[in-house]
What we know:
It is built from eleven helices and 34 strands. Mean pLDDT is 89; it is low at 1-25 and 455-467. The two termini are 41 Å apart. Strands 6, 7, 8, 9, 12, 13, 16, 18, 19, 20, 21, 24, 25 and 26 form a 14-stranded mixed beta sheet that branches. The protein is an alpha+beta fold.
Amino acid sequence: xxxxxxxxxxxxxxxxxxxxxxxxxxxxxxxxxGGSDRKSWASAPxxxxxxxxxxxxxxxxxxxxxxxxxAATFIxxxxxxxxxxxxxxxxxxxxxxxxxxLLAAADGIWIEGGDQYDYVSTWDGTLVEEAIMQVFQRGGxxxxxxxxxxxxxxxxxxxxxxxxxxxDAAYNAYHGDIHLSDTFLPLIPDVITDSHFHSRGRMGxxxxxxxxxxxxxxxxxxxxxxxxxxxxLCIEADLTATCFGEGTVTxxxxxxxxxxxxxxxxxxxxxxxGFDQLIHGTRYDLAARRLLTPGPGLAAVTGSAGxxxxxxxxxxxxxxxxxxxxxxxxxxxTGDELNAWYGNLGETAGGGDLPHTVIIPRLWQDxxxxxxxxxxxxxxxxRHPGFSAIYLDAGFSLTVESGGRITAxxxxxxxxxxxxxxxxxxxxxxxxxxxIIGGLLHFLREGDTLTLGGxxxxxxxxxxxxxxxxxxxxxxxxxxxxxxxxxxxxLAVPGRTRVDxxxxxxxxxxxxxxxxxxxxxxxxxxxPADRASGIYFFHVRSGGHRVVRSCLYLK
Length: 555
């Protein structure tokens, strides 16, 4: 929705030597979530950007037409008058030594919004990228907004296949639109960024992308950083950061007790994901994942709502009236798509069938209301520390047992605040966007369980990492199929691995792999063009273990 927030040879050798070094934060980084940066909220982060450039030369770059106004903005905040804009539209230009020399001599580089794959496909591995890295590694500042924000992390959603819609990613972490890369501008270590975060419901794609990298690549130290419209995060060289603006910056990360399970074709399952959400004035340590200074809007809370009695019930995600079962009902979720942004959400007392909860049904129904619904749950728990926000989608449900144990029948998301330490809203801003420090986020799928109101929460479902099997074979996807299917499996330890396909009579059909394989996640495809329709079985053998799954081929 529209928010109307609306080198000479020696130098090049030096650039190449610097770019070969391990990348750690040596300079500063500014990431903006998009929206309108021509309003007063942007003055503080832009002024910070100019200061970190030591009031030197700042160059704004883009693949498409550049906005000349950025140079004027930076000069207005004290940057060198020779600050300028530069369009670098082709890989030939990106490998032009003169252009690279000009960039490498700058003190700050700014990347506009647009399409991040334009940047990745045009600049990745070129002299331009090396020049930007040289500016950063000698202590300069690099920043960007929207798509420019999206390419600043160690891992990028690069939009190779276009944008990924969160309601698709939430149902399949391996959706074909999701492509992650880790070669271009790895400026912020151990971070994957996302922009327009709440206005486009991108919690639904950042969590699956983060979970995939944790499971498939072993990057348990990776954090997801989602930046809202009209909001910026200014990151110092030591990875301490300050939030500025009208919205929030959401930090998501695995805790010591997190579990993560991603299966192709199924919703992601993860538990006890750390949830910290910053507001204007909040200072935060990105490396240690901890609050430094709450700022004027956050206040310390006890995080406890007290003991409660639960009773058995079922919540239907298709029924808007399911919200009435919570202790608090959030109003204003529909009607005006900007209610959360402009502070027009409210609350009334619910029936309390599920005490100490805020229930948000029909989560992914109508993208106009993604923002209101996600923020609505957060707004409720920020106003009622210790409560849990429960999000359900239409067509699915959850059941509650008398001890507070819930079972998901399809995708269910829970934001718990029993461990929350700080909550509040930006001072002087009429908004329902809350700051929350110390929350725990759970993404549940069919059969996962969670006990509400306790210090420890546990997800128990197929694929849980808590007790990883030696060989885990996931369901083929798609299944049934008529041309090609993909199987995925995970090895707990490395070793010789053989993957065979047999038919319903047990006859050997094909061998997809036979040799040494590393531990971790593996994926193979099968195209049985010359085979008859019918049921086939995948056999995966490794380390004396064998697992089998079936698939149905339909010509």
